[in-house]
Fold this protein.
Amino acid sequence: MARVDRGAAEVLHASGRLQVHYGAQVRRAAAADPVALPCVGDWAALRELPEGRFELEALLPRRTAFVRGGVGRVSRSGLSGDSQGQVLAANVDLVFVAEPALHATDTADLGRIERLLALAWESGGRPVVLVTKADLIGEGLDFLMREVATAAPGVDVHPVCSLTGEGVDIVRGHLEGRRTAVVLGASGAGKSTLVNALAGESVMETQQVRAGDARGRHTTVHRELIALSGGGLIIDTPGIRRIGLYDMGEGVDMAFSDIEDLARRCRFADCLHDSEPGCAVLAAIEDGSLPERRLDSWNKLQREATWMASRGDARLRKELQNKWKIIHKEMRKSGRNRP
Ligand SMILES: Nc1nc2c(ncn2[C@@H]2O[C@H](COP(=O)(O)OP(=O)(O)OP(=O)(O)O)[C@@H](O)[C@H]2O)c(=O)[nH]1
Ligand SMILES: [Mg+2]
Ligand SMILES: [Zn+2]
């Protein structure tokens, strides 16, 4: 599924890009459960109609699903967030988190990176952080890369410049073996420019950022899957304003594996890493090996995930359980073969 609009989709088919309408079964499933709506990255079975037209007969089970939580509407009670999840991309092996190297003095938005990494781990895909526009920061790049690395334990972090092509081959290398990736990040981060660099031609529209504050102009408005001639698929997405967590399983823990490791060495198994004696997390902050910001960020994201869980979204939970079932079944079979 390359692109989805209301009631219709564009699919990549052996014969090229096809416009298809949803069949009755797909419409029924989606009416009963929005999570069953066709999504970019979905694999689908088509039925041939007269005159060489096709309709979408059914979706194949998703191997992975990148789901965002509620978009953070503020309700009367002052609480924000809603419990409706939305599948942003299906069947992605890799989640590229694009963070632009904009400020020589400021640090990057590490909180946004951590949030996206938690969602990426939860999706069942593997995250990779790309520091885009690496040409803009000059001398400060090494410092920035170290900063970003502290927010991304166990995750590859690469600098990329899509204009000169530096680092683009490394990104291409991640896609080897006909993998599927989605690229996420703020508007103006250079996502579409990177997709064009990978494609070797201008497939996505790009636009200069605003002169005053370097923010993007929300140029990409649809999620779009591009087949790269060198193999591999990449999904370009609109710039993210705010992305919510939901009732998560391992995602937050995976994104904070450094703290999880330390926490195993705390004296008390139920240590809150607040003021307890023998706390290995506080000791690491004390000796400078763990930035205090990390602990704050971990607490914040855990609270958010717990709160979303308390709102409960049975449909979403079912989709996620289903997803893990499929992933585990796949893993038991020989590795992670593509359909
Ligand atoms: N200097 C420099 N500029 C870049 C680089 N990559 C992208 N840009 C510029 O950044 C601007 C925004 O790039 P886009 O690719 O449109 O950004 P985007 O992330 O797709 O933005 P949205 O579609 O709005 O989400 C364009 O003017 C690009 O030319 C880079 O590596 N170096
Ligand atoms: Mg774009
Ligand atoms: Zn502790």
